[in-house]
Amino acid sequence: xxxxxxxILRKILRYCVIILIVITLNFLIPRVMPGDPxxxxxxxxxxxxxxxxxxxxxxxxxxxxxxxxxxxxxxxALFQFDLGYSIDKSSQVSELISENMxxxxxxxxxxxxxxxxxSLLTGSWCGLHRGKFLDRLMTPASIIIYCMPTxxxxxxxxxxxxxxxxxxxLGHQSSSGLSGLKAFFDTLYHLALPITxxxxxxxxxxxxxxxxxxxxxxxxxxxxxARSKGYNEExxxxxxxxxxxxxxxxxxxxxxxxxxxxxxxxxEIIFSLNGMGTLLYDAVxxxxxxxxxxxxxxxxxxxxxxNLVADILYGLADPRIRDSARCSEEIR
Amino acid sequence: MNGSVLSxxxxxxxxxxxxxxxxxxxxxxxxLAQGESxxxxxxxxxxxxxxxxxxxxxxxxxxxxxxxxxxxxEDVYQMAHGxxxxxxxxxxxxxxxxxxxxxxxxxxxxxxxxxxIRKVEQIDAADARSRSIxxxxxxxxxxxxxxYENYPHRMSGGMLERSLIAxxxxxxxxxxxxxxxxxxxxxxxxxxxxxxxxxxxxNGALMMITHDLTxxxxxxxxxxxxxxxxxxxxxxxxxxxDSVHPYTKGLIRSMPERGMTPIPRRVxxxxxxxxxxxxxxxxxxxxxxxxxxxxxxxxxxxxCWNVDA
Lengths: 332, 309
Known about the structure:
The complex is a heterodimer of chains A (332) and B (309). Chain A is mostly helical and 332 residues long.
């Protein structure tokens, strides 16, 4: 019998392979694209004007060696957390990303936590009380919001609550020149609207999945059997319904991380916030290849790590998944 | 009624589906005395399982239930909710059909049995555990320690069926209603399971729903159900070995060891006002256009015009 630890180890190994593939694609795609990074910086004329300068710069950026050597250099650099040097922003890519990642996490983490908690409550309540007022309100609203593009929801919120009602600022992370508790509340004031939009998006998807999962589980045979055994509804809901809804909920939260990362990119641009979204937007606009590469790598990592965590929790929450992973391993 | 464990009076159950009414039970009267075991047989869809659910009052949300069900003299449909929860499990223990879906897939089977024993008998966790291990061992679920720790999806249908039986035989409920408890069991384990179930009748009574007339014979009485009505009920020996109702005779003839001749035609969805078995009966006469009542005849009750004392 295979222990839980080797189940987790095998998962981690599989993710390492995925990461290697991601790194390779990240390296290859910019180099397959037409154009030359140095021409982009120096302008079309430079190549004709001064071949010596080009050669010097090629040496500096390591572009003179073969693709394979460059690849090995890139991976070697990655192991030292060296993501290269941004051509446009004249700064270390890793520094730029770590600064901006903090801002993005400031958006995503509260949104993820609040939306998970709220949808767990509303989803299971509505699943158990089909057709009640809250269900008839939440469920269609969730469908509408789930179908709406992020930018549209963000624009509606911005124009209603910031522009017309003037309850919230139109953009930016914070006012400058504040410190301590004041700075905290100022940031909260600035981020309240974008976090709310992101939270609502997060709730909509998870609410629907949870409601349907709870409905499905409540109709299962073992719930009726538990009832025939004289357990009260509270015990049945806690011990059987909520416990069984945990695996799909975990999967849903993990999928949500991807959705929220994507949403945050768009919301940062609309609310003029500093973060991974605006960084990536600039990088693409100015064809800053090392920065594009770095941003994509970090965002992919975020999603992958959340998936890995979900995979592990999923297996811990459901013995059937643990077993099926083991079976497929044995067949192989 | 003295010594009566279960008493069912004129029980009618109707399901509402898309505006049309489907009648599942059509005036069932049944009595189970202290120490008695009753087998309930009949084709699929005759209402056997519905009767079991109705006794536990589990159909409130899905069907209209009329009539009276008295458990030890108490009306199940009049009692307070708390009392009902007490009777479910502790007073009446159901061994449900479909063992594959009757257990929570995320909890260990042994733990689910222990939890139930603990709730019903109000004993501590260690006692409940050792009692369920003893019972699982008695029912041949070996190696018992491994089986205890197993999840439902790792166990076969027969193992799960016996685990369900263990819930009933490890507790001392007054009435055990077992819905096809011998399904998927081989001869030897079937014997063990039947003996364990029959021994529960000593605490009160046993009602065993079954398609297996050989198992039914081990109960004191047998009731044959057709289209939501009892058509023949009496001592198992006479009902099975010397059946008088044409439907019972048909059931016996369809057993593999008795010729394996199926009853002709299918159950009519609308049986009309006369005898419900009329369209399939090979002994039908014009009297059968009227609905027959149960009559005492040759030591059992029969619902047929054409049987003479």
